[in-house]
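Example record

Each entry pairs one chain with its bound ligand, zinc ion.
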Amino acid sequence: MEAESASTKRRREDDDDVIPSDTSESMESLFDADILRLTKVISASKITTSRQSEMIDIVSRLQATFRKSLISHRVTQQTADLANTLADVQTALQNVSAKLATTSLAAPPAQLSYAQAARSKIVEKVKVPSGKSVSPVSRSTVVIVPKPDSPLKTADETKTTLMKVLDPQKYGLRLDRVTKTGKSSIRLESEKTDLTKIPMDILDKAGLVVKPQGKSLPRLSLINVPTNLSPEQVKEAIISQNFHDASDEVLHLANQHLKALFRFGPRDQQNGNWIIEVHADVRRYLLASRRVYIAWNACRVNDHIRVTRCFNCQKYGHHSSDCKSELQCGHCAEKHDTKACSNLDRDPTCANCVRFGHKGDVVKHKAISNTCPAYLKRLDAKISNTDYGL
Ligand SMILES: [Zn+2]
Ligand SMILES: [Zn+2]
Ligand SMILES: [Zn+2]
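Structure tokens for the complex follow.
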């Protein structure tokens, strides 16, 4: 047993000490152990000191080379791992896109950039002055008026006549709202039925006719527009500076329908605000872009939906300059100018809510309040009368 060679002995020790493994870590510690042993052997050898240091030098260079190759081995290993991971990701992506193709799910239209597609959700709602956003509902709307030669004079008469000849049950009509609009006309609204299908001959026999009426185009406000531009120049700038990634159709709609309506805000400054009118698809495109570039300015863009209320009589739909009604106070609803109100110490009373027959706490707010039920109803009507392309 004494004749056991050093190499055999070492192999036995290796077998005992080291769990066989081919990881680079175990290779490294094995190698280090061998180097240490070799260095000891060299130091104990009966050779000259200069030979010893020469051999130790060679050993340490061998060790350095081994380390380097080990690192490159690890990098190769990691690169291989990375390549495998990438291949997995690629396969997963292919699966996802195959699924998207078969279910025709929300693959964003090609003309929208990724960021725009991500933001396109916001444009499904309309931002109203109270700061909230409301989802416009698609409603079918018709306005019914007496024919020119009809004896019907008031909206009530028109309504009574219509109710006599048109049986909602017979035609499967689901009316959400019937309102008087104008002197002798009434408006029907329905979320569930297409009201243009009401039989014309029945109306005709009763002396009534459907008044053709298109919905209004949506309006947008542009903040910080150079004030030295004419409406035509505003339109030109919007079109040439903002539709670079729009589809031909959206660009065409912008050319055809975009109108710079009026300017508002301070008159004496370099920049002011504009209200523009656009097609529903152009509204979507511009709101998703978030900024509208005009000349050197990046302008904020928002929905602009306003209910006009007269400062004189508080009624909706006209300005005080066109007012033909009596003065009515915006605070107490009595017959005086709001600015001259002597009832400011009392709870307010809303002139419009009183007029619409509300009572009690429901009317205890100023006419200007943006939570006023009469105002909200009017705002809702305005939104449903605007074409958001639903
Ligand atoms: Zn008025
Ligand atoms: Zn008053
Ligand atoms: Zn009110």
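Confidence is low (pLDDT under 50) at residues 1-22, 101-115.
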